[in-house]
Design brief:
Blueprint: H1 3-12, H2 33-55, E1 58-62, E2 72-73, E3 76-79, E4 85-88, E5 92-93, E6 99-103, E7 106-112, E8 121-134, E9 148-161, H3 193-201, E10 213-215, E11 218-220, E12 230-235, E13 243-250, H4 261-268, E14 276-279, E15 290-291, H5 292-298, E16 303-306, E17 309-325, E18 334-341, E19 348-353, E20 355-360, E21 371-380, H6 381-387, E22 401-409, E23 457-465
Parallel strand pairs: 6-9, 15-23
Antiparallel strand pairs: 1-3, 2-5, 3-4, 6-7, 8-9, 10-11, 12-13, 14-17, 16-17, 17-21, 18-19, 18-22, 20-21, 22-23
Length: 479
């Protein structure tokens, strides 16, 4: 017996079998209660592990809620966290026969339904078993415990009081996934929960169910294998195993993946997407008006010349939630526009300020070498000269304010998995309050970003008060 066969035998021939044991049938085999329990437990556990691993848990369909003055919960199907099926084949009335009250402070104790005080409760369904049918046994000593012939799988309900009558908990929590090459994926998603709940409640529930080749000592199916990977086969010096596996060419692409409900739902919510999680001008993004001195501060200390490029290295910085490919973060991913009153006509002109260069930060520790998590915008020198007084476009005698627009085109920027970032704006998500003097802006990522789809554009708008005066040029805006 070679090494591989020995390991296989050690795993499978012991008295313990944590992976699941079932009966082996042969002529004259005697079956007792133990053998039948083994057989039943095997199939129960196999079915439940598939339920919880492949399908996930929650309501599959039905369980429509009672109308006012009614009290009946409609038929439905659900899986609990252990993969057990909660099957209700007909509407049932929630009453003391099938419902109890649970105190959140003492979750292991139950109280009768009649002791429930008025208030808001969370109605919950529980998998339950009930023994049925008396078994006719010949008592050996007259003291045996009576037995039941059957087990009925059913559903019972509980009511748990909520501390805040106006706040009902939502089953959709924050995404728990980790990105393969870096930080947490954040966000609670686009919010399709209410619509999906409606579809699920109206779904039809069915209560009916219906229950090749030989190779060496194995029975196998030659026609339906599961592809795993592309590998190389190499010659080996082992006389017992002269051929072996070498390099793994692709351990991902050939695999047909099982997508459970939790995974698909998280994809709908955009949990796998990279977002813009901070902008250096967050105080002014759809918020406070920026003074002319503060605009000068953001345009940087002066004009820089590098080779054939002359530009202003600004303090307009954009940070991403996960690593993005630095080669895709190019100047054409951004647009910078300023709207000012025309000096002659009084009409407003929109002036495009070219983004000369996009400077990417070096990779963060642990990130791939060709990635970045932040970029600095370098603008055409003309804007710097206008703002610092070398030209008249920002003369307070002509213009009282300017409107600045900064665009980020998410379709152009790819993350470390070659997927466009979700750059869509989401309300006021990136806006931050002004910090106390001398304190940096809070750059903690907001909870809700993007709309759950790759690509899209982020547009930031802020107003510059040209006539206003400030005490300092940054007022606590150090980044």
């Amino acid at each position: 017996m070679n090494k591989r066969e020995t390991q296989h035998a050690n795993q499978c021939q012991g008295e313990e079998c944590p992976s699941g044991m079932r009966n082996r049938y042969f002529r004259r085999k005697t079956l007792g209660a133990t053998e039948f329990r083994v057989e039943q437990n095997y199939f129960l556990q196999r079915r439940r592990i598939i339920n919880r691993s492949v399908h996930g848990w929650g309501v599959v369909g039905g369980f429509s809620m009672p109308q006012p003055g009614d009290g009946h919960v409609g038929p439905g199907l659900a899986f609990d966290r252990h993969g057990r099926e909660l099957l209700l084949c007909e509407a049932v009335k929630v009453d003391e026969r099938n419902t109890f009250v649970v105190d959140p402070a003492k979750p292991g104790e139950t109280r009768p339904l009649r002791q429930a005080a008025p208030g808001v409760y969370l109605l919950r369904a529980h998998y339950a078993e009930r023994a049925l049918g008396d078994a006719a046994l010949d008592p050996e000593c007259g003291c045996d415990t009576p037995e039941k012939n059957f087990i009925c799988e059913t559903v019972v309900f509980s009511l748990m009081p909520l501390p805040d009558d106006d706040c009902c908990p939502c089953a959709e929590g924050p995404c728990q996934h980790k990105c393969s090459c870096g930080d947490d994926c954040c966000g609670a998603g686009r919010g399709p929960h209410a619509r999906l709940c409606e579809w699920v409640e109206e779904a039809e529930v069915s209560c009916s169910s219906r229950l090749p080749c030989r190779w060496r000592q194995y029975q196998i199916d030659l026609c339906d294998p599961v592809p795993l990977a592309c590998v190389t086969v190499v010659q080996s010096q082992d006389p017992c195993n002269p051929v072996g596996l070498g390099e793994v060419k692709d351990a991902c692409a050939p695999r047909r993946l099982v997508k459970n409900n939790d995974l698909l739902y998280d994809l709908i919510r955009g949990c796998d997407l990279t977002h813009i999680d901070h902008i250096s001008w967050a105080v002014f993004h759809r918020g406070e008006r920026m003074s002319l001195d503060e605009l000068k501060y953001f345009l940087g200390p002066g004009v820089v010349t590098e080779g054939k490029l002359t530009f202003a290295r600004t303090l307009f910085r954009i940070r991403f939630s996960c690593p993005v490919l630095a080669e895709t973060v190019t100047p054409d991913c951004f647009a910078f526009r300023v709207t000012l009153r025309h000096t002659d006509t009084g009409w407003f002109d929109q002036r495009v300020v070219p983004v000369i260069k996009s400077e990417c930060d070096p990779p963060t520790s642990g990130d791939p070498a060709n990635t970045t998590r932040a970029v600095t915008l370098c603008l055409h020198r003309k804007l710097y000269k206008e703002v610092t007084g070398e030209a008249s476009a920002f003369d307070p005698q002509v213009n009282q304010e300017a409107v600045v627009e900064i665009d980020v085109y998410g379709d152009y920027i790819l993350d470390c998995r070659n997927q466009p970032i979700d750059a869509n704006a989401r309300g006021y998500a990136l806006r931050k309050p002004r910090p106390p003097d001398g304190q940096p802006v809070d750059d903690t990522p907001p909870k809700h970003l993007g709309n759950g789809t790759p690509g899209g554009s982020f547009l930031s708008i802020f107003h510059v008060d040209i006539t206003g005066e400030t005490d300092s040029g940054d007022r606590g805006l150090q980044q």
